[in-house]
Amino acid sequence: MGVPAGYSASITYKCLKGAQWKTLTLLTAFLYPGIVFVGALFLNFFIWGRGSSGAVPFGTIMALICMWFCISVPLVFCGAFFGFKQSLLEPPVRTNEITLTLTLTLTPTLTLTLTLTLTLTLTLTLTLTLSRCAPTRSPGRSPRRRAHHALPTAARHTCCLMPHILPTATCCLVAGTT
Fold this sequence. Notes:
Order of helices and strands: HHHHHHH
Number of strands: 0
Shape: flat
Structural class: mainly alpha
Number of helices: 7
Helix content: 55-70%
Strand content: under 5%
Largest sheet: none
């Protein structure tokens, strides 16, 4: 994927009359793959912390970094080299140099409408999700114990990931009960 990425980025940048080709090539080689790698490594730290055997071993992570720097990055530079060497194609039609000014004004009404819509959607989603797990009151057991014992035996082991924050809702959401 390195050669097509470098080639298409360089052709597009050349068509837009860009002048900083080194920056473009470095960003193409490191920005998106770096974000994905850091995200995966961040999640892997949590898996390591839990002591899971599903965590990616340190040696495999080092092998991935070596493959990235020794294979992918040079291929991006190779694709960018060929892309910058190629001459630009002439557009099939002639375009007029008419400047068209487009203005987008965010009126207070539009901003308020968007904010209220987003807030209402999030509030309703959380309310409906948490109301499905609301415990019923009965003497003898606390809501957390009642919700825990209402689950099947297999689900009890995966129950209550964060009991100090949302004990009942977490149990119900993890176990998939209503």
